[in-house]
Structure formats: C-alpha cells, structure tokens
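Thread: NAI complex, take 2
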Amino acid sequence: MTSIAVVEGDGIGQEVIPIAQNVLALLHPEYEFYPVEIGYGKWRKTREACTADDIALLRDADAILFGAVTTPPAADYRSVVLHIRKELDLYANLRPVQGNGVDIMIVRENTEGLYSGIEWQEKDRACTLRLITRKGSERIARAACRIARERRNHLTIGNKANVIKSDVFFRDICIQTAEEEGIPYTTAFIDALTLDVLMHPERYDVIVTTNIFGDILSDAAAYLVGGLGMLPSANIGDGHALFEPVHGSAPDIAGQGIANPVAAVRSAAMLVSHLGDTSGAARIEEAIRLTAEAGIITRDNGGTATTAEAGAAIIAALTRLLD
Ligand code: NAI
Ligand code: MG
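Output below.
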C-alpha cells in the first residue's frame, strides 16, 4: 500500500492541493491519502504550527504532497518548511523550469547554507551564519550529477567564490565530484548566471547551487515559463520525499479562487515519477499542455479561468488520456 501524506497548509495551498490530490487519485486509485494539518492556521488555533506528531505522520508516508504555509513576520515563529526539511533531511531541492522551449533543472542544497538557522540578534546588529559542510556539498553535488546523467549530461555550478570563502569550498567540492562522476561541468558566478539563464536558457541543463542562491535563481527563472504558478518542486532525502509548488500561500489572492493549480499538479507529476510511474508523470504533463492549448488558463498567465475551471479541465484531459 502506497501512503501519501497531504498537507494543504495555508492560503492557496488549500485551493490547489485538492486538485493535485484528485490527479494522483485518478492515476493511482490504490494510493491511500491521509491529511496532516500543519501551518499558520493551525498555530492560530493551537499555538503550534507543526508538532512532533505531525513530523511522525510525515515520516510514515511513502511521499508527501505539500501546499504552502504562511510564515508570519513574528520574531518567535520558526519557519515550518525549514523545520520539515531538516527533520526529514530533505537535502535536495529539485526545481525543474520547463516550458516555452526551456528545460532546466535547478538543484538547490536544501539543509544548510544561509538557511542553517544559526542566527542571533543583538541590540545593534544581527548575525546569520552561513554554514557549508563537506557532507552537505558532496551529497548535493552527487545528486546533481546523477540527474545530469539522466538528462543532457551537463552541470553548471552556481557560486559566488569570487567573494565568499564558503563558496570556494562548495564550488571545489562540486568540481571534484563532477570529475569523479565524469560529468562535464562549468562554473559560474550566481549573479551573472541568473541574468544569463534569463537571456540564454538553452545553454543550461542542470544547475547546482547553495540554498539561498537556488531559492532566488528558481523564482527568477520562473519568468521564463509563466511565473510562480507554473513551477513544481521536489524535496528529496535518502529516506523521505516531499513535493510542493515553489510558490507560497499567496495571501494576496487567497480565497479568490484564481490561483493557478499547475505548479501543484506538476508537483504531483514529480511525486508519481519518484514512486516509479514516469509514464503517469508524462500524462499529467500532457494533460496540463492540452488544457493550456484549449485556452483554459488562469489570470496570472493572461487567461480568465478560475482555479476550479483549470483544475477540472486538467482532470478531464487526464481522464481522456487514460481511456
Ligand atoms: P508567494 O509565492 O506566496 O506569492 C508571490 C506572488 O506570486 C504573489 O503575488 C502571488 O499572488 C503570486 N502567486 C504565487 N503562486 C501563485 C499561483 N499559484 N497562481 C497565481 N499567482 C500566484 O510568495 P510571498 O508572497 O513571498 O509569500 C507569501 C507567504 O507564503 C509568506 O508567508 C511566505 O513565508 C510563504 N511561503 C511559503 C512557502 C512554502 O510553504 N514552501 C514558499 C514561499 C513562501
Ligand atoms: Mg522561494
């Protein structure tokens, strides 16, 4: 029995995740789904956003489908997403940027770097430590090489080694790993790289980089394929895997029924692919393509379709593909 933990979370997570779950249920009626309530909504009710029991429920799943959670700007509120990534050691954040002739895989280190959580505030200054370890760098470089081998066999190592010592360390470990793995690579400074990805996306296959650089690069690269409403992601560790849209809870549009469900549905495609069903993943992608081709497009991409209409159209297209 394949069990899937479903975290809708906050805001538009509650609007797009049910559609992604329906897509999974359609393809895999044998999957067993169970909801896990996590997020700011829960915190407001119970003063806890994610309990040890919630983490245990996530650990039990074969895969996790995750919406988004709101992080309120309160000093004592810990980021739930960072907490889950750490607890489950989901060290590889895979963010495919695909569409409009673009096909790039951003592989972002997901457990350390500037998001290590080693930080403190003093009266007149604040400090966040950027921790880069050999183990963390090596395993993300290995994962990126593995992915490159399955794709077009090229790795770009995004870094800021011209300024930051910890990036010299990261870059050199990535170079050594790529050489050991026999993957052709280039290195690039992250600022110039971000611009070049936008101007010449066809030059890139797999890009590996540290935590915050990958976060920013992937949001910027979303520009190439229709924005945040289109980008899925996978958070993979050796024992657990969590799939979520790159976007957040989007409080500015939450509750209006206009969120684009494609990023969440694509995350479902990455989930089935991870569990071995690559043809199912291809069918989901095809259903998304057919829906856009039929002009059923949400407002963020210039259409008028609601979340529900776009979701229903994707489900209908997928149903036809499965006939
Ligand atoms: P966001 O991704 O929620 O929204 C950024 C902009 O993109 C907004 O204008 C939003 O309306 C638009 N957008 C995002 N997804 C969309 C979709 N599916 N369809 C149409 N438009 C979409 O990022 P923001 O505003 O920085 O953060 C909002 C909240 O979400 C914050 O509390 C933040 O901490 C949280 N967040 C959570 C994440 C997670 O759970 N993994 C990731 C990013 C942010
Ligand atoms: Mg982000």
